[in-house]
């Protein structure tokens, strides 16, 4: 039976790969993102698109209204929106402390607030039972990201998801996170990774290769399946063994 699947950040990278996986099953997919043209160019068969800044409550409210009108119920909610805050426009100032404040604010807005606002806006529309909520965390949530801000913004999703799992569990809804490691063919780095850095990242894996958007999408797709119905409040790492255990 076809499901209604909402994917933020669905126009590129992991979100796009996930959208194609669900669409291939015949599911009805809604792609969300800030850039309408990118969503349209994604060309996911049968997909609806809606351009919005999910870091703005008023725009998320409009997304929720659209979801209600077009889909009604949300069977699967995938949070793929977010990214490297360092790629966003700077605050234009020369105050070092102000730059730190800007960096942390941007990262939490991109990676944490977008997911929280969208979840809260549509939580009453999640299919009960059988609904699935899936967050994109990161290997950085375990080992840091250099500046701290990006890693912290992803790690902040963990307790939120765990609380949500307890709240929604009685409705038959599961909530999980997927934490990718180094994944190629995304816009996360803003361009090609310097070869020495790429070799270092690949060398950390046990599989000897970088991850792909399809690797992560396949895990999201499985967590959304009936087979994963008793898995909730978990972080599934997809990093080729670069980070072990936890």
Describe the structure concisely:
InterPro entries: KR_dom, NAD(P)-bd_dom_sf, Sc_DH/Rdtase_CS, SDR_fam. The protein has 246 residues and is an alpha/beta fold.
Describe the structure.
- There is one protein chain.
- This protein has a single domain (4-238), classed as Rossmann fold.
- The chain starts with a strand and ends in an 8-residue tail after the last strand.
- It is globular.
- Helices cover 41% and strands 14% of the residues.
- β4 (76-79), α4 (96-122) and β5 (132-136) form a beta-alpha-beta unit.
- α3 runs parallel beside α4 (96-122).
- It is an alpha/beta fold and 246 residues long.
Helix content: 40-55%
Shape: globular
What distance lies between the first and last C-alpha atoms, to the nearest angstrom?
35 Å
Question: Strands of the largest sheet, in order across it?
Answer: 3-2-1-4-5-6-7
Largest sheet: 7 strands, parallel
The domain count comes to 1
Low-pLDDT runs of 5+ residues are: none
CATH superfamily: NAD(P)-binding Rossmann-like Domain
Strand content: 5-15%
H/E element order: EHEHEHEHEHHHEHHE
Can you name the CATH architecture?
3-Layer(aba) Sandwich
Protein name: 3-oxoacyl-ACP reductase
InterPro entries: KR_dom, NAD(P)-bd_dom_sf, Sc_DH/Rdtase_CS, SDR_fam
GO molecular function: oxidoreductase activity, acting on the CH-OH group of donors, NAD or NADP as acceptor
Domain Ketoreductase: 3-205
């Amino acid at each position: 039976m076809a499901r209604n699947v909402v994917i933020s950040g669905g126009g590129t990278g992991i979100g796009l790969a996930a959208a194609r996986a669900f669409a291939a099953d015949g599911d009805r997919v809604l792609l969300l993102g800030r850039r309408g043209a990118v969503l349209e160019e994604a060309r996911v068969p049968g997909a609806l698109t809606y351009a919005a800044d999910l870091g703005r409550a008023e725009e998320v409210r409009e997304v929720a209204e659209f979801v209600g009108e077009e889909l009604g119920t949300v069977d699967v909610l995938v949070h793929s929106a977010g990214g490297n805050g360092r790629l966003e426009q700077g605050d234009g100032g020369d105050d070092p402390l102000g730059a730190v404040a800007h960096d942390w604010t941007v990262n939490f807005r991109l990676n944490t607030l977008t997911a929280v606002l969208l979840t809260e806006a549509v939580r009453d529309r999640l299919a009960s039972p059988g609904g699935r909520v899936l967050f994109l965390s990161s290997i950085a949530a375990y080992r840091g990201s250099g500046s701290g801000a990006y890693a912290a913004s992803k790690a902040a999703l963990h307790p939120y998801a765990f609380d949500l799992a307890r709240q929604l569990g009685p409705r038959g809804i599961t909530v999980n996170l997927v934490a990718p490691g180094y994944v190629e063919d995304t816009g996360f780095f803003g361009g090609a990774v310097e070869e020495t850095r790429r070799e270092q990242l690949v060398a950390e894996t046990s599989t000897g290769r970088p991850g792909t958007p399809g690797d992560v999408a396949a895990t999201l797709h499985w967590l959304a399946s009936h087979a994963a119905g008793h898995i909730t409040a978990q972080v599934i790492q997809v990093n080729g063994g670069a980070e072990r255990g936890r």
